Amino acid sequence: MSIQLSQSLLVGVCLFSSSWLYAAVKEYHLNIDEQMVNITGKPLKRITVNGQFPAPLLEFEEGDDAVIHVHNHLKNKDSSIHWHGLLLPGLMDGVPGFNQFKGIKPQSDFIYRFKVRQNGTYWYHAHSKGQEQDGLYGTLVIYPKDKKPVAVHEQTDRDYVVMLSDFHESTGDQIMKNLKKSAEYYQNERETVADVLKQVKRDGLKSTWKDRSMWNQMRMLKTDLSDVTGYTFLINGKTPEQNWTGMFKANEKVRLRFVNASAMSFYDVNIPNLKMTVVSADGQPVKPVAVDEFRIGTAETYDVVVEPKANHYQIEAESIDRSGFAIGTLRNEALAQTPAIHMPKARPRALLTMEDMGHGASGDHANMDHEKMQHSMMKHEPAPIDHTKMSHAEVAEHSQHQAKSDSESQQQMEHSAHTAAKTTLDHNEQPVYGWANASTPAGHKALQYSDLKSLTPQKDTRPAERELEVRLGGTMERYIWTINGKKFTEVEPLQVKYGERIRLKFINDSMMAHPMHLHGMFMQLENGQNSSDMPNKHTLIVPPGKTVTALLTADELGEWAIHCHLLYHMSSGMMSKMIVANVDGNQVATTPSSPSPAKQGDAHAQH
Predict the structure, then answer these.
(1) pLDDT tens sequence across 117-170
(2) Are 91 and 101 in contact (CB under 8 A)?
(3) Nearest-5° angle of CA 85, CA 91, CA 94?
(4) What predicted TM-score, i.e. pTM, was given to this entire model?
(5) Rg (Cα) of the chain, in Å, rounded?
(6) Helix H segments across 383-491?
(7) 87 neighbors 120 (Cβ within 8 angstroms)
(8) Biased composition, Basic and acidic residues: where in the chain (predicted)?
(9) Can you say whether the dihedral through the CA atoms of 274, 275, 279, 281 is positive or negative?
C-alpha cells in the first residue's frame, strides 16, 4: 500500500470516528429471499425483502450515518443492492466488479455504511442480473435535517411515495432468453393492412409507397417503442384493481414522490383535473414548474405538490407503448369509502419517424436518399444482401440462415397473435408521429427538460475542459446494445481526473430511447438554462436519433457505472465504467489524500 493511500485511510478513520460520535445512526436489516407472491391472481416465485414485494421504504435524514445489513438468503444466486442517486464511497455503491465489490454470496451478509450527504427522493435496487425485475427494488426517502423543507413551496401537509413499476409473469432471466431468441419476441403491436389503407387515403399512394419501402429497407417497425410487453403496471406494488390510495383533508397540500422503478417502462403521468407543481427532479430541488402531465423515464424521480379541491382524484400513469396503466387514488378522508377506479381510454400509440431515426425532420421522408442511409443504425434484421456478389456456397449458406430466420419469425408471429388481444390499436384514431409526442390535450402543459432550473445556483460553472462522447447503439438481430460500438465486456473505461470539468455527449444512434444513468455523481443537464441554473440529474433520457449533453465535475473518486437503465439493454452490453482518480506523477489513487468537508464520513468505507 502506498504512503498516499495509508495517509488517506488514517485521515478517513479519524474523521469517521469524530462524525460517528455526533451523527444519528439509522440502521436497517434487509433480508433478501424468494417467496410466492400473488400480484395478478397467479402465485409466482419472486424475490422479496423482509417478506415484502416490492422491497420496503427506507427513510433517513440528511446527516445520518446509514448502517444497512443486507442478508442474502437466496439459495444459488449472488445478490447486491445499489443506492440509486446517492453520493457515497465507491465500495458502498453496490455494483459487482466495481471498486473491489464482489457482490453478496448466497447465505452471506454485507454491511453498507455511509454518511447521508443529501436529501430528496431516491430508490434502491439489485445490480445482479434480472433481480431488479423480479422484485428487488424499493424507495429511499431522505428528509432535510429535522425535516425542515428546503423551500417555502415544499411545505406540505402530507407526503406520499408513488413508486411505479412493471410486473411480468416471466422472470427476468426468461425475458432475457426470449429477447436473445428474437428481439421482436414481445412485439405484438404492429401496423395492419387497415393502417396502410388509411395512410394511402390520407397521404396518397406514391407517398405511402415511398414511406413503406423506406421502413422495409431498414427492417424497422414504426411501432417499436418498447422491447418487452405483457406487463402489469403497479403503484407501490398494487395493481389498478387493488387501487393504492393516498388520503388528504380539505385545503391540504400534498407532496407526491414519483419514482420510476420499472425494469423497462416509460410513463406519461397525469392526475385529471388536478394541476401538479414539479419541485424536484432526481431528488434535487428545482424551481417550481406547474404542469398537467410529465413523462418519466426508467430510473428517474419527480416530486410534485398538489392542492386537491375535489374529494377524489385518479393518478394515471400510462406506458408509452399504450399497453396499460398504473392507477392509484387520492381521496378526501371524509369520504366513507374509496370510489372504484375507472380505466381511462388509451391515448394513440405514437409511430416512430425518420427524425426518431436521426435522419432529419419527419416531413422530409419522401425526399431522402435511402441509398446513403447509415445501415449501421439499430436493425431488426440484416440489411438486404446483394446475391450477385456472393459465391454459390455463400448464397447457400445465406439461404439456410434465412430459412432459420423465417422459421423464428413464424414462431414470433404465433406468439404475437396469442398476446395481441391484450392491446389493440384503435384504427379510428388519427396517427400520432414521433417518440416525444405524448398526445397531450390541447391547452395542457407537459413538462419538458428545458423547464427544469436548479433551485439554488450551481457551485461549479466552469466550462468543460474536454468532451467525452458516449455513442449509443447496437444490433437487434442478436439483441446486443453498445456504448461507442462495444458491449460492456469489450469497452475501455472512461478515464477522468479528480476535479476535472467535462462534457458528456450522449449520441443516440438507435431507434430506442435510453435513460442513461451515472453512478456516484450528478450531471448538470445542458437544457438551455444558464450554467448556474442547470438542473442536477443522475439519469438522462436520450430520445431516439437525438443528442443530449451534460456537464460533470468529477468530484467523487472511484469506479462508477454509466449505463442505460433499461434492464435488458444494460444486461446486453450498454454499460461502461468511468474511473475518477487522483493523478500525481506516476501514482494514481482513487481515495483523496485529504477529504473535503463535504466528504467527511465517507473515507472510512473506501477499503
Answers:
(1) 999 999 999 999 889 999 999 999 999 998 777 676 778 999 999 999 999 999
(2) yes
(3) 55
(4) 0.81
(5) 25
(6) 392-419
(7) no
(8) 392-407
(9) positive
